[in-house]
Amino acid sequence: MSKSKEISIPEQVKGYSQVRLDVDLTTGKVEKTTLSEKFCRDWIGGYGFAAKILWDELKPGVDPLSPDNIFLFAIGPFPTTILPTSSKYGVFAKSPLTGMFGMSISSGSVGAQARRAGVNLIVFRGKSPEPVYMVVDDNDYYLVPCEKTLWGKGCWETEELLREEFQDQRLAVMAIGPAGERMSKMACITNDRNRQAGRTGMGAVMGSKNLKAICFRGTKSTKVAQPTEFYKMAKKLIKVANGPATAKYRDLGTPAGITSYNKLGMFPVRNHQEGTWEEIDNGAFTGDTLNIDWVVKKVACTDCSIACDHITQVPKTHPDYPNLFASIDVEICYSFGSACGNPDWPTVFKCVALCDDLGIDAISGGVTAAMCMECFEKGLVTEKDLGYKLPFGSTKNLVRFTEEMILGQGFAGEVFGDGTRQAGIRLEEMGQKNAGFYGMHIKGLELPAFDLHGMSSFAVGESVSIRGACHLRNGAYGLDAKGTYDRFGYDKPLERGKAIKNLEDIYAIIDSYIVCKFTRGIYENDAEMAKVYELVTGIPHTEESINLRGDAIVTLSKCFNIREGWTRADDHPPEKFFKEAHTKGPAKGVTLKEDGYQKLLSGYYEARGWDTETGIPTDETLKKLSLDFVIGKLKPVSGGRKK
Amino acid sequence: MSVKRKRVHQFIVVDPELCTGCETCESVCSFVHDGEFNPINTRIHRVRIEPIFNIALACQKCEDAPCIRSCPEKALDKDEDGSIIVDSDKCNGCGFCVRACDFGVITLHLDNQIALVCDLCEGMREEFIDPGVGKREPQCIAVCPKEAISLKSVEQIGEETRIQAVKRLFGDVTEFGLKK
Question: Average pLDDT for residues A498-514, to the nearest whole number?
Fold first, then answer.
């Protein structure tokens, strides 16, 4: 196996700006340093950069919402080139929602403008004495107090005001809303109006640092190592990115999956009580209906050939939400739609618009609302508590609940304003026994749009995800949906483990490059993905070496979690999947089996070279991945993760 | 792919129904002319009006071009295709052409402050010419992922609009006359 060490480093790397900024928000000081060529080669970008820096530089056991946490912004080598979906950025920190490795990725214009400003990485530390926003304007880096101008404003207005202030409609703005300011553990960061770094509460970390927004613009050029060859390949990839490989993202968008996953009993309904829905069967709540009746435009992020952003419009004549625009994908059709038993499209759009503008993750938000609905159904939350009824299928009351939850108002805000895990803890403290059972999360992060009852491979894939419940760390749902393995059974644990590992390694590279998962299929193979990296950076990574780096990045961020107190029990789906089955559909009567699940989990650990009992990487594996610096440091610190 | 016709002034036209606002045209414009990506040095400019309107604009090749009239250095002229050509020896970066252009599609190059205006890629670099095509052609059209960009003359635009109007007025024209 070729080791990363053997990959030569050119004298000058291209693509990367190699500029790292360290911003001490407490003192207002900004320091500029250079990322070494070796660092770029070994950690690739985005996720990889963050895995290394958070391991090296974040003191273990810190409170995620204290000034001690690090908030990290990073891009890879591709933004501002025409490589499809290159304009992506990532934000990273210890997550207030999970207490573990926090990461969220977004796009819009931010990645490209950050690259034009010449910034590769920003590390924020401390806490500003007053609300500020950060400006990265070519080589000018500064903080601007904004208590009177922006604090308290929604993300959309913040972006508009800053673009007006700079007289520049192309200014890239990442902003938090009132939810981030009040440090809701579900708080997101919004940019370009419709794009969010939503997951794991990164907006709360910004809020905890009094950092309202970050703006980027720049005039710098990006050179690539082999311009002619790169241009040839980029043109080909743009063409392919408009072919069959991405058709589902362009045409109906990800909501195309509603119908297909419903058929398989995998589309979560009423807080994962069911995996099929009559509103989908009858055609009312499908990707087709959404597109025919509501979508008015598909919009692209910078340098994206696909344009997956499906914008819906509620007609001007609608009594409640006239002329409302919202950005819709399958996740929110689930979170505020099927999970809440709500087939009313304008209600879904309104809830999503509230989340995007006021600043919480619309997946976590909807799943938290669905938890409240089930608690209401079971009598654990009452009309007296909320001030209104909230059964499944609520519309106006769902909107009301959502707004209160985001803003931290009333019972909804106090109990449900920080997501499902906190809501469970709070309700149980109030005497509602076993309320946590209805919180659909893994490691504290709310589940995406898959129901795990009949998905034994993805039950593992989703549970081992570094950042908590997530379909984008390894995409192992495909193994169940495509029938690669028996999705109701538990055979071939090592083989399944290897399949999940292989997906996870290349996904880690995609998140480090950073490009969009939607372009995964435009490359002929991993070798072509490595080639495009070489054409841009001049670093001759190969299919083997990038996958090895992906393995190292996943393993290092796993080590971060272990240091923060992770144990095997954290890699576990919600109890509901083991105890309550669907009453209809293809997975009727099926529950996950604990012994089978544990067998598959051990298979995954084995495939990774992690101890099959504890799930902790062995010294041998750490050495193989050149992670020698981790050895001996995998003891969790006392006072680490708090649930 | 649009075929270029001599002496009929064709210019870059972008369909806002198809344009997604991805800015790929801007990036590629700078790249094929300068060999590096810098969308500020583009000759085609994306405009996005939130939340849904997207388009890109490039030189419209005005008949009586205000940019040419406004240039105090007489650095701007037209070639036989009606494209604005900039004499880089004469252009001193004063920016009067930028102010004169009704469409905002002239800018100044960041490095040398010389006026930038769409040349339909006559000035693109040799090494980026597609061997399969063998000649210079507008690269924004070649790469636009949604085929939203085309090369058209006002006559073509009028003709297309008329055909669409007739289809609206007469419905399925292949059936015309058969219903009697």
Answer: 98
